Amino acid sequence: GVYSFRIQGALHHRYGAARPLGNDRPTYNQLYFLDPQAAKQERERRNPNLKGEILWELGQMLQENHAYARVYKHAFEVLKEQEEQNRGAGRPNEVVTVRMHVDPRKDPRRYNMPTVDEVAVIFPNE
Questions:
Q1: What are the residue ranges spanned by the domains of the chain?
Q2: Suppose 112 and one of 23, 47, 65, 106 were both cysteines; which one would form an S-S bond, judging by CB atoms 3.0 to 4.6 Å apart?
Q3: b/e map of 7-46 (b: 16 or more CB within 10 Å)?
Q4: Predicted TM-score (pTM) of this structure
Q5: Euclidean distance between CA atoms 33 and 39, whole angstroms
Q6: 11: which residues sit within 8 A by CB, 6+ positions away?
Q7: Rg (CA), the chain
Q8: Which ranges are annotated Basic and acidic residues under compositional bias (predicted)?
Q9: What is the DSSP string of the chain?
Q10: Residue 38, CA atoms < 13 Å, CB-side half-sphere
C-alpha cells in the first residue's frame, strides 16, 4: 500500500504523479485517472487473489462517494482537455501540478475536500 505518516498528530500522505512514469504500471491514485474498466483490470492484475466483481463494486463506490475520487476525475478531464487543445494548436504539453488544498481551519483528520467539481490548475506560458 501507500505510506501514510503523522506530523504533529495529523495524518499526511504524499500522492505521486497523476500518470505512470516511463513504462511503469499505474498504481494507487493513478487508477482514478483511468477509465473505470481499465482501472478494474489494473486492480485485478495487481490483486489476482481478489474477486473482480468486488473490485469493480468497490471502485464504483469510491467514484460515487469519495470526494478525492471526484476531484481526481475532474482534474483528469481538465488535463485531457488541455492536452487536446495543445495537440490541435501544435503546442507541446506543459508539466502541470495539481494540488489539493484542505482548509487548515477544518479538522485535518477527515476528508474535508470540496464536494463540487472545481479544480484550480495553473498552466504556465499562456
A1: 1-33+66-126
A2: 106
A3: eeeeeeeeeeebeeeeeeebeebbbbbbeeeebbebbeee
A4: 0.54
A5: 8
A6: 4, 5, 108, 109
A7: 16
A8: 100-110
A9: ---EEEETTEEEE----SS--TTPPP-GGGGGGS-HHHHHHHHHHH-TTS-HHHHHHHHHHHHHH-HHHHHHHHHHHHHHHHHHHHHHHTPPPPP--------TTS-TTS----SSS------S--
A10: 9
Write out the chain's pLDDT in tens, 126 residues.
Answer: 555 555 566 655 666 677 788 888 888 778 877 778 888 899 899 889 989 898 889 888 888 887 777 777 777 788 888 888 888 999 888 776 666 666 667 665 555 555 555 445 454 554
Dihedral sign of CA atoms 69, 102, 11, 20 in order: positive
Q: If you search the block for the grid coordinates 473490485, which residue do you land on? A: 55
C-alpha grid cell for residue 81?
482537455
Q: How many CB atoms lie within 10 A of CB 62?
A: 16
Cell numbers 476525475 correspond to 73
